[in-house]
Design goal:
By secondary structure, the chain is an alpha+beta fold. Helix content is about 50%, strand content about 15%. The structure holds adenosine-5'-diphosphate and magnesium ion.
Length: about 800
C-alpha cells in the first residue's frame, strides 16, 4: 500500500498579445516545493478582491511557467503516474482552472502542432512503448471516454453514433453495488492493441465532443471529460491478474460569479458557475478535515466517478492551470486556493490484484494430476502400458544430461512413474556393461541394432557404418537445402510485412492530396496495403462531409471562408510538414530496402558456403570441414552490423509514422472545426439577411426566392423568428437574370469588387445560394477593408 498526498502542480498559460501581465513571481528553491506569489494591484484589491491583502503565496510540487513545454510537463507530472499504473496501481491526473487557462491544452494538446501533443497522447505513447518492452507479462488495454454535462454522462466513444447533439450520444448512468463500488452503465470500453488504435479513439471522442457542442450548451467549458486507460496484466501461467485504471480528466471551467452588489466580498464566497465543481470542493473540504466520516461523493456524478481518485485507492496528481493576466487574477487566486486544499488530501493506493477463477481451475487440475501420480507410486498401483518411443527418447536425453553434468548435486528426475524409473536402471546397467557405446549411441535407438551387431560379423558392421555415414551426409545436404528454402520464405514474408508498413504510410499521402503521390524508385509497393484511412473513417467528420448537401454556391462561399479562416495557415503549415515527413519516409524506405537486400545477399552467401562444404564433405570427407569456418563467421558479423543499422532506421521510420498519423488527425480536426465555424457563420449571415430584408430587396434587380429561405433554414441551427417571403411572381419584370450588389461605402476602397454582376443560373436553389455567397463575399471584403484601414 502506498500512502501519499495528492501532488499538486501549477501551470501558467502564456500571455496573449493584447493581455497585460498580472504581477506574480515563481520561486523554485524553497524546501523542494516551488512557491507562487501573486500580487494584487491596489485598484483591483479595492474592487472585488479582499482589500485587506495584497500578496498571496501558494506552494506547489512544481510550477510550470509560461514557457514550459508539453514534453517537460508530461515528464514531470504524467510519467510517474503512468509508471504506477503500469505497475498495477490506479492513477488520476486532473486539470482544474478557469475556461481558457489551458486545461484542454495540457490534457489533450493543441490542435496545431505535433509538439503540442498533450498528456493523453504522450501517455498512450509511453504506455504502449513500455508494454511492448515487457515480454514477461500479457497485457490487455482498453480505453473509455466519458463526458459529463449537466449531471448526465455521455459515451464519447460509441462508434455507432454520429452525434450532432450531445443528447444523441449514449447516456451513461451510475450504479453502485453492495460494496459501494461505482459502475458506469453504458460506457463502452474499446480495446486498443497499440498506440495508433488508442489515438484514433481519442480523436473519435474529441470529434464527437466538438460536433455535439453548440454555442448554446458550451459543452467544452461546462462539461467534464474523463479519458480512461484500463490496463490488465498477467504473468503467463499465473492465475493472478492486475487491473489498473488511469483517469485523465479535463474538468469544466472553474470560473465563478461573485455575489453581486456589495464590493469587497471574499473570493471564497463567490459561487461556481458549474454546480458539480461546487460539490467537488465540498468533497475536498470534507477530506481535508480530520475525523470526518461522511464524504459527500454522491452529490454529483463527477465526484462519484472520481471517488477513488480523491481520498481513495489512487495515485492522483492535479494541475492548476492559471491565466495570469490582470483581468483573471482573482480567478487564478481561487484556483490556487482550491489547489492548496487538494494538496492536503491523502490517498492510499493498493496493488489491484485478483485471482482469475478460470486460471485457478487449470492450475488446480494440474496439481491434482501430480498428486494422483504420487499416490499411485505410494500405493503401489502402477500403469502397465509400454512407454512410447517419444518417452524413451526423452528419457535417453535426460540420462545423458544427467551423466554429463559434473555437478555432484545434480539429480535425475523422471517423475513418479515406476516404468520410467525401471527403464533408467536398465539403461544405466547397459552403459556400465558397454561403456564404448555410451558416447554416441543411445539405448532406445539401438536396441534392435545392438541385437543385430551381436549376430553380425565385424565386417558387416563396417559396411553398415559406411552406409550410415553416407546417409548422414545426404541428410546434411538436404537439411541445408531445406533451411535455404525456409529462409527464402521468411524473407519474402518479412519483405511483405515491411512493405505493407511503409505503404501504409505512403497510402496516407494519397488521402491528403499531396502532389507527391508516387514512389517510383521504391520497391515498397502500394498494392495490398492496409488502409490506414479506415481508422480515420471512424471519425464522424467524413460522413458529414460525404453527406454533402452543400450546394454549389454554398461550396464557393465555403472556399472563400476557408481562405480567410485563421486555421488555414495551420493547415498549410501542417501540409508542408507532412510533405517533408513523407519525403523523409520515402528516403528512409529506400535505404531500408537497400539494407534488406544486402542482408539477403549475405545470407545467400552463407547458404552457398554451406552447400559447398556439404558437397565437399560427401566427395572428400575430412575433419577440417566439421570445424569452424572463419569466412562464415565474417559474413555473420557483417549481417549483424547491417541488422543494427536496419533496426535504427526502422525505429526512426516508426517514429515518423506516428508523427504523420498524428498530424493527419490534427488536420482532420481543424478541417472539421472550419466547417463547423462556417456553418455557424453562414447561418448568422442568413439570419442577418432575414433581419434586414431591405438590403437585399432594395436593389431593384434582386429577387429572394422562398427556396433560398428554406435552404438557409436547413443550414441554420437556429430557427428563424421572422421569415420574409417574396414569391417569384413578385419580380416586376419577370425576366430578372442577374444579381447586382452595390455598396457605396465600399466603392472608394475596393472599386473592382464592390459591384459584381453574376448571371443567374435559372435553378432557384443555386441562385439563392449565389445570392448568399455574394453577400458573404461582400462582408469578407468589408472586413478586410476595415483591417487594412
Ligand atoms: P481551457 O480548456 O482551460 O478552457 P484551452 O486549453 O482551450 O483552455 O486554452 C485556451 C487557448 O489557449 C487555446 O487556444 C490554447 O491553445 C491556448 N493555450 C493554453 N495553454 C497554452 C500553453 N501552455 N501554450 C500555448 N498555448 C496555450
Ligand atoms: Mg477546455
Amino acid at each position: 500500500m502506498v500512502k501519499e498526498t495528492i501532488r499538486v502542480y501549477a501551470r501558467v498559460k502564456p500571455l496573449g498579445r493584447r493581455q497585460q501581465a498580472g504581477s506574480y513571481s515563481v520561486d523554485d528553491e524553497e524546501d523542494l516545493l516551488s512557491s507562487l506569489e501573486i500580487t494584487v494591484p491596489r485598484d483591483l484589491a479595492d474592487g472585488f478582491v479582499n482589500n485587506k491583502r495584497e500578496t498571496y503565496k501558494f506552494k506547489f510540487q512544481k510550477i510550470f511557467d509560461q514557457e514550459a513545454k508539453q514534453d517537460v510537463v508530461f515528464d514531470s507530472i504524467a510519467k510517474p503516474v503512468a509508471e504506477c499504473v503500469l505497475a498495477g496501481y490506479n492513477g488520476t491526473i486532473f486539470a482544474y482552472g478557469q475556461t481558457g487557462s489551458g486545461k484542454t491544452f495540457t490534457i489533450t494538446g493543441g490542435a496545431e502542432r505535433y509538439s503540442d501533443r498533450g498528456i493523453i497522447p504522450r501517455t498512450l505513447s509511453y504506455i504502449f512503448d513500455q508494454l511492448q518492452k515487457d515480454s514477461s507479462k500479457v497485457y490487455t488495454t482498453h480505453v473509455s471516454y466519458l463526458e459529463i454535462y449537466n449531471e448526465c454522462g455521455y459515451d464519447l466513444l460509441d462508434p455507432r453514433h454520429e452525434a450532432s447533439r450531445l443528447e444523441d450520444l449514449p447516456k451513461v448512468t451510475i450504479m453502485e453495488d453492495s460494496d459501494q463500488n461505482i459502475h458506469l452503465k453504458n460506457l463502452s470500453l474499446q480495446q486498443a492493441t497499440n498506440e495508433e488504435e488508442a489515438l484514433n479513439l481519442l480523436f473519435l471522442g474529441d470529434t464527437n465532443r466538438m460536433i455535439a457542442e453548440t454555442p448554446m450548451n458550451q459543452a467544452s467549458s461546462r462539461s467534464h471529460c474523463i479519458f480512461t486507460v484500463h490496463i490488465s496484466s498477467k504473468e503467463p501461467g499465473s492465475a493472478t491478474i492486475r487491473r489498473s485504471k488511469l483517469h485523465l480528466v479535463d474538468l469544466a471551467g472553474s470560473e465563478r460569479v461573485a455575489k453581486t452588489g456589495v464590493g469587497g466580498h471574499l473570493l471564497t464566497e463567490a459561487k461556481y458557475i458549474n454546480l458539480s465543481l461546487h460539490y467537488l470542493e465540498q468533497v475536498i473540504i470534507a477530506l481535508a478535515e480530520k475525523n470526518r466520516s461522511h464524504i459527500p461523493y454522491r452529490n454529483s456524478m463527477m465526484t462519484s466517478v472520481l471517488r477513488d481518485s480523491l481520498g481513495g485507492n489512487c495515485m492522483t496528481a492535479m494541475i492548476a492551470t492559471l491565466s495570469i493576466d490582470k483581468r483573471n487574477i482573482d480567478e487564478s487566486i481561487s484556483t490556487c486556493r482550491f489547489a492548496q486544499r487538494v494538496a492536503l488530501i491523502k490517498n492510499e493506493a493498493v496493488l489491484n490484484e485478483e485471482i482469475d477463477p478460470r486460471l485457478m481451475i487449470v492450475q488446480l487440475k494440474k496439481e491434482i494430476q501430480d498428486l494422483k501420480d504420487e499416490l499411485e507410486l505410494v500405493t503401489g498401483k502402477q500403469r502397465t502400458s509400454e512407454l512410447s518411443q517419444e518417452e524413451l527418447l526423452q528419457l535417453d536425453e535426460l540420462i545423458e544430461t544427467f551423466l554429463k553434468d559434473n555437478d555432484p548435486d545434480s539429480t535425475l528426475d523422471v517423475g513418479a512413474d515406476m516404468r520410467k524409473i525401471k527403464y533408467c536402471f536398465i539403461h544405466m546397467k547397459q552403459l556400465m556393461n558397454h561403456p564404448t557405446t555410451s558416447d554416441k549411441k543411445l539405448l532406445s535407438r539401438n536396441i534392435s541394432e545392438e541385437e543385430d551387431t551381436n549376430k553380425e560379423s565385424g565386417e558387416e558392421l563396417e559396411k553398415l557404418k559406411d552406409l550410415l555415414q553416407q546417409r548422414d551426409n545426404e541428410i546434411n545436404i538436404l537439411v541445408n537445402m531445406l533451411k535455404k528454402e525456409k529462409k527464402k520464405a521468411q524473407d519474402a514474408l518479412f519483405q511483405l510485412n515491411a512493405s505493407s508498413a511503409c505503404s501504409t504510410v505512403l497510402e496516407q499521402s494519397l488521402s491528403i492530396n499531396l502532389e507527391d503521390r508516387q514512389s517510383p524508385s521504391s520497391c515498397f509497393s502500394l498494392k495490398g496495403a492496409k488502409d490506414f484511412s479506415s481508422s480515420v473513417h471512424r471519425l464522424p467528420f467524413l460522413s458529414r462531409q460525404t453527406g454533402g448537401k452543400m450546394s454549389l454556391g454554398c461550396q464557393e462561399a465555403f472556399e472563400v471562408f476557408k481562405r480567410d479562416h485563421a486555421d488555414s495557415i495551420t493547415i498549410e503549415d501542417n501540409k508542408q510538414l507532412l510533405k517533408q515527413r513523407f519525403a523523409e519516409v520515402k528516403c528512409l524506405g529506400e535505404k531500408l530496402n537497400k539494407v534488406r537486400s544486402k542482408i539477403n545477399c549475405l545470407k545467400g552467401e552463407i547458404t552457398q558456403r554451406h552447400i559447398q562444404r556439404a558437397a565437399l564433405a560427401v566427395s572428400s570427407p575430412s575433419e577440417e570441414l566439421n570445424m569452424f569456418d572463419p569466412v562464415e563467421e565474417k559474413l555473420r558479423m557483417q549481417i549483424e552490423e547491417e541488422k543494427k543499422s536496419y533496426k535504427t532506421m526502422f525505429n526512426r521510420f516508426k517514429g515518423l509514422k506516428v508523427e504523420i498519423e498524428h498530424l493527419q488527425l490534427l488536420m482532420e480536426k481543424v478541417k472539421m472545426k472550419m466547417q463547423k465555424d462556417f456553418e455557424v457563420w453562414w447561418s448568422e449571415e442568413a439570419k442577418s439577411l432575414q433581419e434586414k430584408p431591405e438590403m437585399v430587396t432594395s436593389a431593384n434587380t434582386v429577387t429572394v426566392y422562398p427556396q433560398f429561405i428554406k435552404s438557409l433554414q436547413h443550414l441554420s441551427t437556429n430557427s428563424f423568428s421572422e421569415i420574409t417571403r417574396v414569391s417569384p411572381n413578385e419580380d416586376p419584370a419577370g425576366k430578372n437574370n442577374s444579381i447586382t450588389f452595390s455598396n457605396p461605402t465600399l466603392k472608394a476602397r475596393t472599386p473592382q469588387s464592390s459591384s459584381t454582376s453574376i448571371p443567374l443560373t435559372g435553378d432557384s436553389q443555386a441562385d439563392a445560394d449565389i445570392l448568399a455567397f455574394m453577400k458573404a463575399r461582400q462582408r469578407i471584403l468589408q472586413r478586410k477593408g476595415l483591417e487594412n484601414k
